[in-house]
Write a structure and sequence with these properties.
Helix content is about 90%, strand content about 0%. By secondary structure, it is mostly helical. α1 runs antiparallel to α2. The radius of gyration is 11 Å and the shape is flat.
């Protein structure tokens, strides 16, 4: 289950990239978002 969620992270990251654009803040936001998504995958 965790591996399936982890496999989806790159797609989520790409979607976040399009939404955030090229702003410098987007990098920090993506790191936090990926950490939250990863913890959610483990908790699930």
């Amino acid at each position: 289950m965790v591996w399936q969620e982890a496999a989806q992270l790159p797609d989520i990251y790409k979607m976040g990239s399009r939404f955030a654009g090229l702003r410098p803040v987007s990098i920090i936001t993506h790191m936090i978002f990926l950490c939250v998504a990863f913890h959610a995958a483990i908790a699930a």
